[in-house]
Amino acid sequence: MTDNDQPTRSRSAGTYTLVIIAIVAVGMIFFLGTEPSDMEEPDKLVSNAEPTKVSDPAAAAVLNVSTANIRDGVYTNAQARRGDKLYAEHCSLCHLPSMTGKEPAPELAGDLFMSKWTGQSVGDLFIRIATTMPVSNPGLLTEKQYADLVAVLLQANNFPAGAEEIEVDQDYMDGIKIQMN
Length: 181
Ligand code: HEC
Fold this sequence. Notes:
- By secondary structure, the chain is an all-alpha fold.
- It has two domains: 2-58, no CATH class; 70-174, Cytochrome c-like domain (Cytochrome Bc1 Complex, Chain D, domain 2, Orthogonal Bundle), CATH 1.10.760.10.
- It has helices at 2-38, 40-71, 77-90, 92-95, 111-117, 122-132, 143-156, 170-174.
């Protein structure tokens, strides 16, 4: 039994190997033969297609949701004025009245601030401030006051005022993405 089986097996294994070699050989000839003209085109197609096709729909979806909210104005002028007073009292010593910051306190208005917070939510900013600021006494202020501070920070970063105040509701605030356009 074993003697009979072995030749059959090794023959079919040998045939298999030959077929694979043949396929690889044909493949290489095809690949080498077409390389010069074909290598450039697929490359171009891929590099053109990726930025536009892959990223656009996702980015558009994110932008539609977030900009609709924050660009409509999610705080009122009155709220920002309250925030401005609180800022002068509790924050400006370290972050400066201009909000440009002073080591080690970072700026709270400008490109650097926006690059850090773009894509995060108003809820993220609220939590950051309410749980860590002012450094010497985190949680010193009420939630409403921290929301007022978020309002003045949004104003300082050129987000428009609107008809409604920032509601002190984590889900609501989490739904507002910080996004310039
Ligand atoms: C005693 C100085 C001091 C005071 C007062 C202070 N901060 Fe800060 N703040 C810092 C420092 C230092 C950092 C960075 C290190 C850290 O997060 O602890 C910071 C970080 C921040 C950040 C994060 C900025 C970013 O983009 O990473 C925000 C927002 C912020 N402060 C807001 C406030 C607000 C609003 C107040 C007033 C309620 C306030 N801070 C009061 C020193 C201060």
